[in-house]
Amino acid sequence: MENQGVKKCVILTGMSGAGKSTALKVLEDQGMFAIDNIPPALLS
Questions:
Q1: Contact predicate 30/10, CB 8 Å
Q2: Local structure of 41: helix, strand or coil
Q3: 1-44 confidence digits (pLDDT tens)
Q4: Given 3-state DSSP classes, what are the helix, strand and coil percentages for the chain, each rounded to the nearest 5?
Q5: How far apart are the C-alpha atoms of 37 and 15, rounded to whole Å?
Q6: ∠ at Cα 12 (7, 13), nearest 5°?
Q7: From CA 24, how far away is CA 33, in angstroms rounded?
């Protein structure tokens, strides 16, 4: 059974130097759309 039309959201958090940018690049390499430093107001 396929999940057609289902969108997944991953919120990646962490302290400075924890590897967030590297993790975002890996997600992009897997075909996901990634945004770095999105303003919290846009998430609500």
A1: no
A2: helix
A3: 576 788 888 888 899 999 999 999 999 999 999 988 888 898 87
A4: 30, 0, 70
A5: 12
A6: 150
A7: 9
